[in-house]
Fold this sequence. Notes:
Layout: H1 3-22, H2 33-67, H3 73-96, H4 102-124, H5 133-158, H6 172-198
Helix pairs in contact: 1-2, 1-3, 2-3, 2-5, 3-4, 3-5, 4-6, 5-6
Amino acid sequence: MNLPNKLSILRIVLVPVTLLFMLPINIFGWQPEGWNNFINTNGMLVAAGVFILASLTDAADGKIARKYNLITDLGKFLDSLADKILCISIMLAFINLGRLSAWAVMVIILREFAVSGLRMIAAAKGEVIAAKMIGKIKTVTQMIALIYLMFEPLLMKIFGLGFEGYPIRICPVTIIGDVLFGICVIMTIVSGVDYLLKGKQYLKG
């Protein structure tokens, strides 16, 4: 397995690590008080650091693959899969925390299912649909929005807006987060329509 593919797998491995620092533990009512206190106060910053590291591997694997001619069908599949798992997992965590709307995230998930279905149909015909530029832009807007949301608690403390856990109240800091996430939802829809229109030949018959 080449280095770009290993980086894609690393991105998947970092998903549960990120979630570990985002979500307090509650196993059938058992809640480790010390750990959960850490999560509620500083866990999101650690999660943000891990998520940024995972996001950087997304840029690195593509550059390495193109520079050293290591582009493979497996790599195309893993790169796209890792992006989806990373971003959607964090969005679901924010739903759990009460920060994101389940409806908005559902739109993103439906887009990913539709494009993945198109890729499966193409694969059955012996072709691989690699990530397009508009798809990469979509992923970047998602990552930027999620990184900002992770830093919201810190920004609220810096600006003296107070923060006592999720859900958080409406203020300028959260409005910016809503706008950024709205942009990524729009880009997700646009990129999904683009994939379906350009891949409509795979849907014939």
